[in-house]
Amino acid sequence: MVRRVLVIGAGASGLVCIKTCLDEGLEPVCFESSDDIGGLWRFEESQSESERTSIYRSLVTNTSKEMMCFSDFPMPADYPNYLHNAQLLQYYRLYADHFGLRRHIRFQTFLSTRKGAWVVGRMSSGGLPLDMIAISRFTNTLKNLLPKRLINWASERVLNQKYDHRLYGLMPRKRILDGGVLINDDLPGRILQGGLVMKTNLCGFTASGLVFEDGTVEEDIDAVVFCTGYRAVFPFLPLSLSDGPGGELSLYKRVFPPSLEPPTLAIMGLFRTKGPIMPIVEMQVRWALKVFTSSCHLAIKERMLCVIDSERRIFMGSYLSRTYPSHHSNPQDAALQVEYIPYLDSMAQEIGVRPNILCLFLTDPKLGLKVFLGPCTPYQYRLTGPGRWNGARQAVLTQWDRVEQPFRTRAVQEPESSNCGALSLWLLSGAAMLICGVSWWSLE
Predict the structure, then answer these.
(1) Which residues, in sequence order, are bridge partners of residue 116?
(2) Which residues pair with 4 in a beta bridge?
(3) Is the pLDDT of residue 75 over 90?
(4) Burial code of 338-356, b = ≥16 C-beta within 10 A, e = fewer?
(5) What's the pTM value of the predicted model, to 2 decimals?
(6) Cα 15 to Cα 93: distance, rounded to the nearest angstrom
(7) Quick one: DSSP state of residue 299?
(8) Which string of DSSP letters, residue by residue, matches 59-114?
(9) How far apart are CA 51 and CA 108, in angstroms?
C-alpha cells in the first residue's frame, strides 16, 4: 500500500517536498491556502493582516541563480544571475510543471498562517556573483585552516577599502565572522548621496517624532517600520518539544525532535545560514523522507540529545563571546545557526550523496577540480548515490556558462593589435638578449 504524506503549503519548500515524495514512491497531498504556488515569493498588491505574508514589489534575490536552484533542475541560462521576485516565481512554476507537481496540490484550502552591519554587494571581483566566488569547498578549507583573527582582518580590510564602514556609520560591534552580513548594493550609495542618514538606536517617541539614543529628535514622522525579525514559535506543537534554553525547538540536526519515537515529524527551514537557503531545505527534505521510509535510521534518543547539546554549546559560546549589549542577547539566534557547506555535507552523508573529492580527483580530475575549487552548487549532491541525476556532471561543468550568458547582450570586439606593441616587445626581447650576452662576455 502506497503511503500518503501531507504537505502544508506550496511555496519553495512545499514544492521540494512534493517532488521528493514522488521520487521515493510516496503519495503526497499538498494543501495550499491561496490559489497559486510560490508562497511568499508570489507578490500581491494589497493585503490585510489576516492574509499571507508576501515580498515587496522590487525585491531581488541575494543569492545567485546557480547557487539557489534545485539540484536537478538548473535555472534557464538566459535568466539574470540575481533574480527579480517575478522571475524566481516563474522558475518555481517551471519546476512544478516539469515534474508534474500541480496535480498533487489542493488550492484555496481552511489553513492558517529586528545596529550596524558589514555591508556586502552582490558583485564580486570581475563583476561575478559574490556567492559563486565565496562559497566553495576550497574557501571553506581555508576558513578552517587559517586563524579566525586573520580572516576577520583581511575581510574587513577589503570591505573598508570600498567604503569605510566607520565613516559611513555602518560599523557593527561584531567582527565579520561572528555574525551575518547585510547584502545590499544601494545602501552605501544612498548614504553618499545624502538620501539616507544613519542614526543610533531608537529610544522613544514624541507626539509626532522620534527620539534617538544620542539625544537627537526627528519630527514630522509619517510612519515607522520596525524591521525586528521574528520568533519561530509553533503553538500547535506540544510544549515538550520547545525545551531549549531560549524556548526554541530542540531539533536533531535542525530537523527532527528527538523526543518523538519513532520519528513522525520533520521541521524544514528552521535555521540561519550565510549561504543559500534552498539547497539546505532540499537536503533536509531528502533526508527526512529517507528516515520516514526506513531507508536510513536516526541515532538513539540519548545520542541525539548529546549532539543537540554539543551544537548548542558551540554556537552559544560563539554568540556570547560577541560584544553585544546584554539587552540585545537572543539565544535563539545562536541556536538556529548552521555552517553552510559542513551542514550540507552532514545531511548528504546521512543520505549517501556526499561527493567523494579524492575519488573524483582520481577518476574524473576535471570534475574534481570544479567541485573543489568552484562554487558549491547544488548539483554536487546529485553526482552519486540515491537520487543521482545523469545531468549533474554536465550541470557542474557548464555552471559558469549560465552565469555568463545573461551578460552576452552585445558583441564586444577585441582591440585591434598594434604593430607598435609587437615592435616594443621585439625591442625588449633584443635588449634582454644583448644584456645577457654582454654579461656572459664580461664573465669570460
Answers:
(1) none
(2) 27
(3) yes
(4) bbbbebbbebbebbebbbe
(5) 0.74
(6) 10
(7) P
(8) -B-SS-HHHHSBTTBPPPTTS-SS-BHHHHHHHHHHHHHHTT-GGGEE-S-S----
(9) 12
